[in-house]
Design a protein that fits this description.
This protein is mostly beta strands. It is built from one helix and six strands, in the order αββββββ.
């Protein structure tokens, strides 16, 4: 019966950090973007090469930086320092975008819309 099967609990690779192309798919940010004093980096570390199943060397991603709770002079009490992170970059335009359409017959339906134009 469909839906009665147990969910797949095997690990799934969502992202890899083994090449410059992999690293370039992510954006980093920290409180320095808004006046904080932290720094953040996402680099490809080739000094600690590992071997995969085919005995070919691969590098690893390294997320690092300096966390600082301080802020630039004049911004004390206005912003908070001490955060850093990274996220995947979503290509734009997406081949398909989802939006909510409200109608009288159905209060909310999800509609799909293809984007025909290119954006820089």
């Amino acid at each position: 019966m469909q839906g009665a099967d147990l969910p797949d609990r095997h690990p799934k690779t969502l992202y890899t950090f083994n090449s410059r192309t992999d690293i370039d798919q992510f954006a980093v940010g920290c409180d320095a973007d808004v006046g904080g004093l932290s720094s953040v980096h996402l680099d490809l570390d080739e000094s600690t090469r590992e071997s995969n199943g085919e005995n070919q060397p691969k590098a690893i991603g390294k997320f690092w930086g300096v966390m600082n709770l301080g802020v630039k002079p004049g911004l004390e009490g206005k912003i908070r320092g001490g955060y850093a992170g990274f996220r995947n970059k979503v290509p734009f335009p997406l081949p398909c975008s989802f939006f909510f359409r409200f109608t009288n017959s159905n209060p909310m339906t999800i509609a799909s819309s293809d984007l025909d134009r290119q954006h820089d």
